[in-house]
Amino acid sequence: MSKVKTAIIGPGNIGSDMMYKILRSDSLELEMVAGVVESEGIERAKGLGIKTSIKSADDILKNKDIKIVFDATSAKPATENAPLFREAGLVVIDTTPAEVGKFVVPCVNLKDIQDEPNFNLITCGGQATIPIIYALSRVAEVRYAEIIAGVASKSAGLGTRHNIDEFTQTTAKAIVQIGGAKKGKAINIFNPAEPPIIMTNTIMADIVNPDEKELRESVEAIVMDVQKYVPGYQLRVPPIVEDGRVTTTVQVEGAGDFLPKYSGNLDIMTAAAVAVGEYLAKNVF
Known about the structure:
By secondary structure, the chain is α/β, with parallel strands linked by helices. Helix content is 39%, strand content 27%. Strands 3-2-1-4-5-7-6 form a seven-stranded parallel sheet, with helices on both faces. Strands 9-8-10-12-11 form a five-stranded mixed sheet. Helix 6 (124-137) crosses helix 10. The radius of gyration is 18 Å and the shape is globular. 52% of the residues are buried.
């Protein structure tokens, strides 16, 4: 099978980590990395022999070989570029909380929306916790779900901090739309501890007539599904049921491709994005 050519727009930490993941993919070929200025990420791509551009989306749009664009910018430029990519017939996999495309969690709903032109990876907290909420909701009615995503301060860059409002709002929406909860809430905590903590996510849910055995089996099964594309994803505390409320915790250790292993919050986004791209390359293109 010939590889599908792709581009990354936004050569920061997420874009750079995604670059290394795509380079070892058996179905994706990285054709270009684009930004707006000469940067460490652009220089890094050049050093690996990858075409680069500092004209943002312009050179991507001119390259007719590119089929998939990984957007690793931020909410505002992702929103501005989306219609340009759509008009050019490019599929976008968006790691920003821009809410332009369909919300996607690879192990939950990708097969159902595979023909969409734009896929939104929601947020790191969403990628880490929505599979768990979905696992709960497929065996019981989830009236309310709340997630607390704790990440190392060192792994929360300016883009993450500038988009914090979008993070909470977008994650809460996806908890309902993709996770299946009737109502959702998201909280993000930047932890300054040294050494830096591994991303830890607590999920709390109000459930109708919970069966602890069924809930545990469903959660354990979805954890294995996530681990297929995020090996560092682990169930830290299995579901605990008390008075109709369920609490469980997962942690995410990064693969260490470019980012430190404690940056599981960023790694789960890049891993999920590449998982979407590889699925599309094998099943759609």
